[in-house]
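Risk register update: the risk of archive-format incompatibility is retired. Evidence:
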Amino acid sequence: MNVSETKSEGLLREYQILITAAEIDAEVSKKLKEIATTLKMPGFRPGKVPLSVVKSRFSDQVRGDAIKAALDEGARQAIEGNDLRLASQPQVDIKSYEDGKDLEASLACEVMPAITLPDLGKVSVDRPKIDSDPKEVEETLGRIADENRPTAPIAKARAAKLGDVAMIDFIGRINGKDFEGGTAEGHSLELGSNSFIPGFEDGIVGAKPGTTFDVPVTFPEDYQAAHLAGKLAVFEVKLNELHEKADASIDDELATRLGFENLDGLKAAIAEQINGQHQTALRQMTKKNVLDALAEGDAFDVPPSLFKQEYESVARAMNPKSAEQDHDHDHDHDHDHDHPAADDGMDDDAKAEAELVAIRRVRLGLLVTEIGRANNIEVTEEDTRRAVFEEARRYPGQEQMVLEYFQKNPQAMQQIAGPIFEDKVIDFILEMAKVTDVTIDTDTLYAAPEEAATTKKAAAKKPAAKKAVAKKPDAKKAVAKKPDAKKAVAKKPDAKKAVAKKPAAKK
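Archived output:
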């Protein structure tokens, strides 16, 4: 076997792997003889099957295995013999091969760039902190009280109006046929809440209790159920009762309705919830400040494949047309046509911005990885186990299913390990860096910062919604009605909703 370098250009490396016919034949012959000594076949004693019979039956399979093993060995020699640190999965292609002739293959790979690690002791980082404000609790409590006002039947019969709570039965039909999910009985609907399909609540306004009537509506084009999107439906609605909301009250009765012992317990839970949201957002801002400080260091080349992957991700997030394409192609069947590029329809300035952001992200990702490697920072089995259990806790009643998912999916385990590793490196940097505590207000904390596009230049012109920033707490989601555990104010997220979504690290 001969392995020789054929290309060294930037971070790209290519090698020729030449395996002689004699080497392949020798390996095939060796394996066939091994099989013959143990093979059991009808009509022959064990281990006495003629080699010609073994060859006729197993030659192709053995030859294929021998070629694969030889190519693996050639790739190993190319990588280890040249002390390569790979940045991506190497690609091996057979260039020419026929039985009885030499095999020629090529190995192409990308190597890690030379990265100059910063002197972490000279890195300056602002670490934000926030003073608790009792007004936040009171404001949130007020909005919760307003959202949870009790209702009572309207004494004097009248027509429905906005603000009423309508008790209704309904049956939805498309082209005269009932459709799944379009029927309900005893449903409570606040008119004007915009919680139903546009036009549905307006169609109830003016109706009187005890009447049955039709409400035609058209499902939005972007409706989550694709089979209903854009369709005209007619709902047969029976208005059973009208209720009015009482004045909002902030007292022990409100707290008990929400599952707490008293008002003080509710306030404490709200304060804990808000503080948790703030701490998550503060952590994200601190991480961003660390990454911004690292981005000021020396630039280096990025592996083309990593750049391409990140560029497509950034462009897809920046490009409204890409989102439409993803929606259009969100099917379970294959397509016989090519999907448009992620940046299809973007102008040159937007593409340039996406490129700069992608380069920055790849550089920071590689730099964080290198800092972790150089300082022996590792993700332990206990770290991943704890993270998996924490993830499972987010889905009450489905914990076992979540745990089994991670057990059966090594890739999912790797994905959960990535953020853990990044957090460990960030914490290490904070221990070594010059850290200045800076007090900020909530508006600053939850403002969406622009993402710096280059390592040495100002931030990109627009944030492009590439990775979520911390969202300011939504008071309406701050408290769950009748929680099972009184320690929690908010419902556990269902993977789509969260009180304050944990944003991805902004790079």
